[in-house]
Each structure stands twice: as C-alpha cells, then as structure tokens.
Amino acid sequence: MISCVVVLVVGSVCENEQNFGPTAQHTTVKDARLGALVGVYLFFWYRCFGPCTQYLPLVQLYAGVFDLKPIFPKWMNSVPTLLFVVVHSGVIVVIAGLWYYATPKFWEVGYMPIQPGNGFNHQIHAGKLGLDCRYCHTHVEESWRANVPAVSTCMGCHAENKLNVEPGFASATDDKVQFIRDAYATDSPIQWRKVHVVPDYANFPHNAHINAGVSCFSCHGQIQAMPVVAQEKSLSMGWCLDCHRNPAENLVPKDKVTDLYWVQTQWFNTLDEAGILVPQPAEKRVHDGQTPDQLAATLQRNPPLYCAACHY
Question: What pTM does this model have?
C-alpha cells in the first residue's frame, strides 16, 4: 500500500514538470515511469538502511510517506566489512598453507621406504668399511642412472664362510644376509625400493653431474652415516635451478666426488675444536690449488636454465 503511495507521489511530481509542444505527452509518461522507479528504489533503500541515509535529500523528502522502522538492525552495517576480512583472511591462509605444505620439501624429504630382507646398511658398508660408491653403483660415471648392483656383486662378500667374523657372531650375520643368498640361489633379483624418485617428465643424467664435479653428498646427503637411506633434499625444480645458477658454490674437486666425509668436513664445512661442523664460504675453499671458481671454469658449458634441458 505504501509502495503505491510512493509511486503516485513521485509520479505526480514528475507530471507537474510537463513540457510543451508535440512531444509533451510522451515526455510526461516517460518521466512518470522514471519517477515511479526512483520512488520504489528509495522506499526499499530507506526500509532497509534508513538510519544510514538520512543525509540524502531525496530520502528526507519522502520520509513522511514511508517513515517505517528499518528491517535490519544497525549492527548489520558491519557485516560486509566482516565478510571481507574473513574471506580474504581465509584466502591468505589457504595460499600460505599450499605454499608450505604442497611442496616436495614437506612431503618427500625424510622418505624412507622399507627395503627387502634386512635392507642395506650404508653406514656399515660405505662408512665403517669405506666402500666407494662406485663399487656398487658401477656405471654412475657413464650412465644416466645410478645402477643398483646385481646379486652377484653382493655375493662377492656375502657368500658362506667368506666374511671374517668373530666366533659366536656368524649366525647373526648369516641371518641378516640370508635373503641375498636365497636370491642368488634362485637367480632372482632383489627388489630394492627406490628412494630418490625423479618424476617421469624430468631427466637427471648422473654421469653429466658426476663428471662435472657434483658430489653425491650434494643430492643424497651424508649417505655414509645412514643405516637406512632416506631422502635428504627436496629434489624440486627450484632446488635444482639454484644449483645451476651458482655452480661454483656446489662443485667439488673431481677426485673427491665420492669422498663424502671429506666433502662434508673439509670442503663445504670445517670442524672446529669441539668437532662441530662450521660452514665454510666458497672463497675459503682450496684443494691442490683449485678454487670453486676454477672448478666452474672447467665446465664445458654453463649449466642450462631452459626447460628443454631437463623436460623432453
């Protein structure tokens, strides 16, 4: 009912402002419709947000016609601001969560699959016994992939009565390596589980990096101290590019590539009097007169930064 009154009042106001001439009637009808729309709009605006719009001259003009109590309380005026803050804060939290959690650094570092049998203890073989990485990974200098040794390589040491163990410990040693002997007897490969997995859409040539002077330590960490191998680096694209952009910082003398203990304690770090590792800056690293910049100068090409170098 009040809406009709508003329409009539606004319409009459517009009709009183008629023009003269051939188009007078058309202009009157058009202005009446426009006035009606304005009146309805002002009614609903004042009905919902009356206390906030009293400064509007038009609302004050028609206030006597539809002077009603607003539908929503005054505190509802803060709802849009509150919604803006909540929505945008939620978006920021989601982005920050994805930035931190949806990364290889969070999900892949520390990956330690359970290996067949009793596994392979790098701490004993490479650390205590001092086996060179290339004794098992024989083709890492010529092949793109760091091959896993055949069972026959393991049997070179773990055949019966071949280990020099103290009396009383032979049974325990035999139990630990029995799965190797069983595999050799049945001519079956040991299904070692891969730890450092490069996606199918990326390629990593081990031979190129080893021959350039990238140590096993840089990608795999201190393998010689791992009873069970775990992934230590993220191996993400950004991590790789950081190395490619600054090769001098990451290269080691080529004759020390597989000497992980030396690389850790005498090249990238030094040991203080308490035996604690202290990072050593690149400008202080020297071995047989070779500096990091000189090692980088021996590269046949600059490490590539374009996509097709690894993705093809």
Answer: 0.68
